[in-house]
Amino acid sequence: MDSDRHALELADLATRATSRDELRRETLARLERIVGLDVAIAWGFGEDEATIAGFDLALWQRFRAHSSRYAGDVGALLEGAARARGVVRDVDALDARRREASPFYAEIVRPAGSCGFLTCVLEVRGARVAALQLGRARRRGPVFRSREAEALRRLLPVLALGEAIHTRPTPTPDARLTPRENELLRYLALGLTNREIALACGTSPNTVRNQLAGIFRKAAVSTRSELVAWSLGALDRPAR
Fold first, then answer.
1. Could you give the CA distance from residue 95 to residue 51 in angstroms, rounded to a whole number?
2. 120, pLDDT greater than 90
């Protein structure tokens, strides 16, 4: 299935990207091919910085400088996304009258060249880590359709995983571990289950369990929490 292929590509990107901005730029480029978009922004909650594509940085700066002016509409979009399992079309979250009277649309959305957009909320273990807003201009035809929102919704777990990898503390690679074992440590530090790690790696939960057992032996620990602490340097690592 295309969604499985896209998920594997995005998971690979998450582990290869050297910074959060690189991750976001490459992710937006891939999403352009997957769902079709003309303008986009990726931002983290509580951040002043964002990664944008297709429109002027000055619009983001204006949004940040006057965020209270736009908070009502943005909040409605985010809550709409949460109710819609992570992704919502603006035409479903805000009615036409509200969009027509909205300063957010008049001063940010339309100057960015967007005639309709998707808002996505990325969560890890119930905590919001980032949001994406993907816009489409009229030259692409109709606004986003429900099937495109659903295609994006299926990718949310791996998109959230990438954000979490580049937001939370990252385990220090250990020379005694294979590249795959070091990759598993990164996922484990995010609190993912064996099944979730298997989905990210394109393997099976049994394979992940066996690989983790090997890491437990090398690290000389007996629990997942000890292994995470070991990977983050909170426990001494035995001499090589």
1. 28
2. yes
